[in-house]
From TrEMBL:
Leader sequence segment: none
GO biological process, one term: Golgi to plasma membrane protein transport
Species of origin: Oncorhynchus kisutch (Coho salmon)
Family: Belongs to the PHAF1 family.
GO CC terms of this entry: dendrite; synaptic vesicle membrane; trans-Golgi network
InterPro entries on file: PHAF1, PHAF1/BROMI
Xref: Pfam families: PHAF1
Protein name as annotated: Phagosome assembly factor 1
């Protein structure tokens, strides 16, 4: 059974790991993978038809914990403990929920102190007691009547007519005072771990098509004196078609992974008459996972010739019929949304899922040695 420390408005964890509000989804998954022998039977819940309208959820079924992530920015928004019998909980090092200590309303009062009068939800038959960044829900279905209190004389828990021994059914950790309107906070400094994250990615274009990307990057604690000057810094970097490996490394740093292409499913659609001639060496990608960007380099010239960037809304309307892309027979067979449709428009390829949401955008461009000097490039 997990033994976890509750930090209101911040996190749930122990000495080995911590789920912190604002943490990226990929980082939470990395923690679960690292501790897979202890944290087992994890479900990933999402909406197939409207994935951006519903939270992404990691359900730790064995431990009675749900991690709710904002579907758009994929940062941790709410930590829910929905089965307190499966986990030990403590606050400031003192347990308030174990097999020997029941999380009664008296125990919550003793551990966390007084707060504002709670709210009774008749539809759910739950009584919600709220602290800043922390909420408890008590089950009332066995009670003869709803709790009562006088608003003019409500002074904390003592004013609520709640039967002794009522126990907590659910606990929530979130940012702010209102659980219903809570949003995922900015990523905390502790989650950067020396990585660089993209706040936004803009496409640099001229009248013909894309020239490259402008990335606004966020980093924290770089260089000497990290603890003395721990704050988030924002920098801008531009990457252009025709940039060398050295240009990219200088602008973005080392990639998380280098991937060498073994096949090209789109090669048959190339207008080149030599499209069936096998290449003597493989092109390769620089994978920047925390930026959501991959850069493809030509194996002969080692210059950037293609981008990939994940986006959330349609940027154009193609005129031709789409190409159907099946991933099941390739190395990347983990796409849960099935086959996708690829539409071409102005040296861009939009990969669209069957639910009409865009999975990725690929930008193509001929190498342009002078493109870096083109100050007139417009970001869209």
């Amino acid at each position: 059974m997990l033994d976890l420390e509750v930090v209101p408005e911040r996190s749930l964890g122990n000495e080995q790991w911590e789920f912190a509000l604002g943490m990226p989804l990929a980082q939470a998954i990395s923690i679960l993978q690292k501790h897979c022998r202890i944290i087992k039977n994890v479900q990933v819940l999402y909406s197939e038809q409207t994935p951006l309208s519903h939270d992404l959820i990691l359900n730790l079924t064995q431990d009675g914990i749900k991690l709710l992530f904002d579907a758009c920015n994929q940062r941790l928004k709410v930590i829910e403990v929905y089965d307190l019998s499966k986990v030990k909980l403590k606050y400031c090092g003192v347990h308030f929920n174990t097999q020997a200590i029941a999380p009664t309303i008296e125990q919550i009062d003793q551990s966390f102190g007084a707060t504002h009068p709670g709210v009774y939800n008749a539809a759910e038959q739950l009584f919600h007691l709220n602290f800043r960044g922390l909420s408890f829900s008590f089950q009332l279905d066995s009670w003869n009547e709803a709790p009562k209190y006088e608003p003019n004389f409500a002074h904390g828990l003592a004013s609520l007519q709640i039967p002794h021994g009522a126990t907590v059914k659910r606990m929530y950790i979130s940012a702010g005072n209102n659980l219903q309107d809570t949003k995922a906070p900015v990523m905390p400094l502790a989650c950067f771990l020396g990585n660089v994250y993209a706040e936004c990615v803009d496409v640099l274009r001229d009248g013909v098509g894309p020239l490259g990307l402008r990335l606004r990057l966020l980093t924290a604690g770089c260089g000497p004196g990290v603890m003395a000057d721990a704050k988030v810094r924002a920098v801008e970097r531009n990457i252009y078609f025709g940039d060398s490996c050295q240009d990219v490394l200088s602008a973005l740093g080392s990639p998380h992974k280098v991937f060498y292409k073994s096949e090209d499913k789109m090669k048959i659609h190339s207008p080149s008459p030599h499209k069936q001639v096998p290449s003597k060496c493989n092109d390769y990608f620089f994978n920047y996972f925390t930026l959501g960007v991959d850069l493809l380099f030509d194996s002969s010239t080692h210059l950037v010739k293609k981008f990939w960037d994940q986006i959330q809304e349609l940027l154009g309307h193609p005129m031709e019929k789409p190409v159907v892309l099946h991933r099941s027979s390739s190395a990347n067979n983990t796409n849960p949304f099935g086959s996708t449709f690829c539409f071409g428009l102005q040296r861009m390829i939009f990969e669209v899922m069957q639910n009409n949401h865009i999975a990725s955008v690929t930008l193509y461009g001929a190498p342009r040695p002078s493109s870096r000097a083109r100050a007139e490039a417009i970001g869209h």
